[in-house]
């Protein structure tokens, strides 16, 4: 067992405090749980961003199309492209000269998009890229020198601590040229109770979503986690805007992962994920710090979520 997944799990569970990387949530079972979560009312970010895309489709697409010159529409972490499909349909119907380049770490996701999108969106020009975001951005730049519009939706940027998100925005800027654009979905600060309910939903989907990573370790890394011995705990700090998820060990216990023995004290936690919330002013500051101009933002009717336009 030499995989990066194994190395990261052993390093994370061997640290004090223990942590796991939320990028490993998304195996097939995790993808399914995330789909369930996105259709759960308490998990508001998806509904908010969908409202933005459906109620302001034309305005968003016109901003992307600019003066009408050809462009590459690159989506970081495209998933099943449900949300972006709204925009893609409008762009195709309005004869925009663009090619869609979804980038995803999952080979499965990219193969599926390459097959399904030409069927659901006839006329689409799609080139799926499978790999790490910045490697694939370099590849996209080598493939064409057209203007780039990079979409990073769904508050994925929130799964990075603030300093990392800032660094990510800077790195993104370094990969773009003047005139290129970023369209980034960011979850905004709001009632702490609303935020917390999204990450501690009453149906327990978020709990299953987090626990699935222990199942995944059992399945793929010869782990023997007793899942019933762990509980999900989420906390939101309205001051910093950080929502954090943990798994709590309900008992003192020993767990094997491969040939490594991991000891848990009763009540010891594993830090699982950060879902950072921002004020509008903080999003604009992040854009400026990274060398972008924040030229527009599209918000839902409750002002809970923004899709911001950053110009390189
Ligand atoms: C993918 N990401 C933006 C989600 C979020 O809101 O942080 C992942 C998630 N974790 C728990 N619920 C949803």
TrEMBL record:
Domain Histidine-specific methyltransferase SAM-dependent: 6-309
A GO molecular-function descriptor: methyltransferase activity
Xref: Gene3D superfamilies: Vaccinia Virus protein VP39
Keywords of this entry: Methyltransferase, Transferase
Keyword Transferase carried by entry: yes
GO BP terms in the entry: methylation
InterPro entries: EgtD_Methyltrsf_superfamily, MeTrfase_dom, MeTrfase_EgtD-like, SAM-dependent_MTases_sf
PANTHER family, A to Z: ERGOTHIONEINE BIOSYNTHESIS PROTEIN 1 (PTHR43397:SF1)
Protein name per UniProt: L-histidine N(Alpha)-methyltransferase
């Amino acid at each position: 067992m030499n995989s990066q997944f194994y190395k990261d799990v052993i390093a994370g569970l061997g640290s004090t405090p223990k942590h796991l990387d939320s990028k490993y949530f998304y195996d097939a079972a995790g993808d399914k749980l995330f789909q369930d979560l996105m259709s759960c009312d308490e998990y508001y970010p998806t509904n908010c961003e969908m409202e933005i895309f459906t109620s302001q489709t034309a305005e968003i697409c016109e901003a992307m199309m600019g003066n009408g010159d050809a462009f590459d529409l690159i989506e970081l972490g495209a998933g099943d492209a449900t949300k972006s499909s709204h925009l893609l349909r409008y762009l195709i119907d309005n004869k925009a000269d663009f090619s869609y380049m979804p980038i995803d770490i999952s080979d499965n996701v990219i193969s599926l998009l390459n097959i399904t999108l030409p069927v659901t969106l006839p006329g689409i020009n799609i080139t799926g890229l499978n790999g790490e975001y910045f490697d694939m951005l370099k590849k996209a730049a080598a493939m064409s020198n057209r203007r780039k519009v990079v979409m990073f939706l769904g508050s994925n940027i929130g799964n990075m601590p603030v300093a990392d998100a800032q660094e990510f925005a800077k790195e993104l800027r370094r990969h773009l040229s003047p005139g290129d654009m970023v369209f980034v979905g960011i979850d905004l600060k709001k009632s702490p109770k609303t935020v917390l309910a999204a990450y501690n939903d009453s149906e327990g989907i978020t709990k299953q979503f987090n626990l699935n990573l222990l199942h995944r370790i059992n399945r793929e890394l010869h782990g023997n986690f007793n899942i019933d011995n762990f509980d999900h705990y989420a906390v939101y700090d309205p001051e910093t805007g950080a929502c954090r998820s943990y798994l709590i060990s309900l008992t003192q216990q020993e767990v094997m992962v491969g040939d490594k023995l991991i000891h848990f004290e009763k009540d010891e936690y594993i830090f699982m994920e950060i879902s950072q919330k921002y004020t509008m002013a903080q999003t604009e500051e992040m854009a400026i710090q990274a060398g972008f101009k924040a030229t527009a933002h599209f918000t839902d009717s409750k002002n809970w979520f923004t899709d911001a336009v950053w110009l390189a």
